[in-house]
């Protein structure tokens, strides 16, 4: 089975009268004639925030400002060439700050329009866009499929990874952190529990799986903290081979209602050396990854 993975960023942009901005797929895209939210693939090394701003400029001629992260999701689709594509999608709320509306020239979209809710419901939409906008999917070309058995994609020297992480706390206010094992980027630093999403896996399922594998805890998602990325073209993998490494990360807030002793349950040789419940003061005095430090700082 030929499989593909991609990460993409999109924006929901509404006018003051409630109309929403949508683009139509051109003959150059996988699903011509099907409408979607403006956006597209995240370039290697690019922050997702920059992607959505760039894609709006390319596809609509408009300059936009991000006002928030609406949601993060993932889906599988069977493409016209019979391959299976897993797409991780970050969806932002954006507002127009300038520019003039015009269609993309010689790209993957060929039309851009402000549409009323009734007009949106009458257009064929990509499934993820239909779900975001609360209308029934009307396209026949993009076939969503169910969960697949895990299949490991080929990993070239250039690696773009999509990960889901947890800022997990318990009823006493303790914070759950993990220490990165030797041989992995950031070895010895304390990090948020989490890791890469598997093929066919949503970010929510991935963060729950990673939380249990790395800490033996089960938690519930209570919010979305934000999205970040890290680009390290000189990172070394476990085999000491340089990787052109780009990781896109979504961070959730989780609550562990019934905490147990934190313990690593994943197989030996993994990226996590140990896990621990820590008070905020204890956590503040540890060497932290920039992701853990940023998440703790953002949430106080």
Q: How do the SSEs run, as a string of H and E?
A: EEEEHEEEHHEEEEEHEEEHH
Count of domain modules: 2
Contiguous low-pLDDT stretches (5 residues minimum) are 138-156
Briefly note the CATH topology name of the largest domain: Nucleoside Triphosphate Pyrophosphohydrolase
Bulk shape: elongated
Overall pLDDT metric = 89
The biggest sheet, with number of strands, parallel, antiparallel or mixed sense and barrel status, is: 7 strands, mixed
Count of DSSP strands? 15
Look at the structure and name the CATH superfamily of the largest domain: Nucleoside Triphosphate Pyrophosphohydrolase
How widely separated are the two ends? Answer: 46 Å
Task: Tell me the fraction of residues in β-strands, as a range.
Answer: 35-45%
């Amino acid at each position: 089975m030929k499989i593909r993975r991609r990460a993409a960023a999109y924006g929901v942009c509404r006018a003051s009268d409630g109309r929403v901005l949508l683009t139509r797929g051109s003959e150059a895209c996988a699903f011509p004639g099907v409408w979607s939210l403006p956006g597209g693939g995240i370039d290697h090394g690019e922050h997702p925030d920059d992607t959505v701003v760039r894609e709006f400029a390319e596809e609509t001629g408009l300059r936009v400002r991000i006002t928030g992260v609406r949601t993060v999701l993932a889906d599988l689709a069977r493409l016209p060439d019979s391959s299976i594509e897993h797409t991780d999608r970050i969806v932002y709320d954006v507002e127009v700050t300038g520019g003039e509306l015009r269609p993309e020239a010689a790209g993957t979209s060929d039309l851009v329009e402000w549409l009323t809710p009734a007009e949106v419901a009458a257009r064929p939409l990509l499934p993820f866009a239909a779900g975001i906008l609360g209308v029934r999917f009307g396209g026949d070309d993009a076939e969503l499929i169910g969960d697949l058995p895990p299949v490991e994609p080929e990993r070239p020297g250039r690696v773009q990874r999509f990960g889901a992480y947890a800022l997990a706390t318990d009823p006493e206010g303790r914070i759950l952190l993990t220490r990165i094992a030797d041989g992995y980027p950031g070895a010895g630093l304390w990090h948020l529990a989490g890791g890469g999403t598997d093929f066919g896996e949503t970010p929510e399922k991935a963060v729950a799986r990673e939380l249990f594998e790395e800490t033996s805890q089960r938690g519930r998602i209570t919010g979305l903290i934000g999205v970040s990325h890290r680009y390290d073209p000189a990172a070394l993998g476990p085999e000491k081979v340089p990787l052109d490494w780009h990781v896109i990360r979504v961070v959730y807030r989780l609550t562990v209602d019934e905490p147990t002793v934190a313990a690593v349950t994943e197989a030996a040789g993994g990226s996590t050396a140990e896990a621990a419940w820590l008070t905020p003061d204890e956590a503040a005095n540890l060497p932290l990854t920039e992701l853990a430090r940023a998440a703790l700082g953002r949430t106080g």
